[in-house]
What we know:
Number of helices: 1
Helix content: 55-70%
Largest sheet: 2 strands, antiparallel
Order of helices and strands: HEE
Number of strands: 2
Radius of gyration: 33 Å
Strand order of the largest sheet: 1-2
Shape: rod-shaped
Amino acid sequence: xxxxxxxxxxxxxxxxxxxxxxxxxxxxxxxxxxxxxxxxxxxxxxxxxxxxxxxxxxxxxxxxxxxxxxxxxxxxxxxxxxxxxxxxxxxxxxx
Length: 95
């Protein structure tokens, strides 16, 4: 176990300038990192809000397409679509 120096309580007790500098640098880095993290969290919140808005607009557009064309599956690259048929779960060969 490491021995701890017993210090006397005097007004002149100070850590060394080097030790103080290390503490100040560490605290400064910690503060900067905390600020950076806060900025990232704000950006994250903005991105999430934008994602929600874009998803809402996309769903509205999809609903308009469904109203116009019925239930369809659209090829995003070509714009071609095919109708989605309701599958009853029965095979035609079973009839």
